[in-house]
Amino acid sequence: MEKPRHPHDHFFRQSFGIPEVALDYLQNFLPPMLVSKLHFDAIERVEASFVSRKLRAHISDIIYRCPLKEKGMVYLTFLFEHKSKPEAYPHLQLLRYMLEAWERAIYEKKPLPMIVPIIVYHGKMRWDVQPVEAYFDDWDEALRPYLPAFDYLLTDLSSLNDEAILQLRARFLINVFLSLKHQGEKDYLRDRIRLLFYGLEEVEDKYPEKNYIQMLLVYMLCTTDFSDKDWENLVEETPSPVKQLAMSTYDLLIKKGKEQGIELGEEKKAREVVLALLGEFPEFSDARIAALAKVEEAFVRELRG
């Protein structure tokens, strides 16, 4: 088992790529009027991406296609915000994204798809949703017809407390949200580790729950610095079905790396610096970012994707 190079993106793709997780999200967070019009029995994952090279450092997408009950089709796009702070101009970012989808449809001689953009954000700073007109200093209502008019659906995990997450009508989505919200919080994990495995306590070798548990463990290990003793103590507090899998996952991800002489802490710090630079300055060349972060240019190329 290899350690993911982009743990947040990897975990997002793994979890929201599961149709049951996406469906639980849609039924909990979409406006009721839209939910009533969607034919969820026919929803399907689209194995494609509308993220251009320019947007790749900012967002990742998972796309589902769902027919409306009466007529028409809609694309429900889950967009994972890479940056740890809110996007200043999300409508502009989303407009680039939607234009990429529509231009591709025109090139392929297909009807333009209706798109519902859904942003999942797990930064610690609160995301304040603003209308498009708030971007402009000299705003007058008479100018409204000349502005792009669309909304986006935001799930800001910093604004959701644990109790609200636990009350969702969902299964593994609860574990995903708790893990994203509290990633890297060693004290929280030590005190409330059982909560992260909520609903998975009675799992033994049952599939797919066993796979879900391993996904959570890998993400936890990739986003939090644990010593061997820290992890052993933490594992003692986990539900019994988790214990054995937790130790074997740790051996495969961490101990193997240490035996191979990989400086995981240093690599993690370098990765965070490079990703931050890519997020803030996507126009910078790989060589310039490598010089700023004091890493090899090949390392930057891998992270840029």
Mean of pLDDT: 88
Let me know the number of strands: 5
Beta-strand percent range: 5-15%
Low-pLDDT segments, ≥5 res:
none
Sketch the topology as an H/E string, one letter per element.
Answer: HHHEEEHEEHHHHHHHHH
Report the total helices. 13
What is the overall shape?
Answer: globular
The main pleated sheet reads as:
5 strands, mixed
The radius of gyration is: 21 Å
Distance between termini? 21 Å
Biggest sheet strand order reads 1-2-3-4-5
User: What's the number of structural domains?
Assistant: 3
Strand pairing plus helix content: what structural class?
Answer: alpha/beta
- Percent range of helical residues: 40-55%
Defining traits:
305 residues; alpha/beta
Report on this structure:
The chain is 49% helix and 11% strand. The protein is an alpha/beta fold. It has three domains: 1-131 and 140-181, no CATH class; 187-258, no CATH class; 264-304, no CATH class. It has a five-stranded mixed beta sheet. The mean pLDDT is 88.
Task: Describe how the helices and strands are arranged.
Elements: H1 7-16, H2 19-29, H3 32-37, E1 44-46, E2 59-67, E3 73-81, H4 90-107, E4 114-121, E5 153-156, H5 162-166, H6 172-181, H7 186-196, H8 209-223, H9 228-236, H10 240-259, H11 264-280, H12 286-293, H13 297-304
Parallel strand pairs: 3-4, 4-5
Antiparallel strand pairs: 1-2, 2-3
Helix pairs in contact: 1-6, 1-8, 6-8, 8-10, 9-10, 11-13, 12-13
Concise structural overview:
By secondary structure, this protein is of the alpha/beta class.
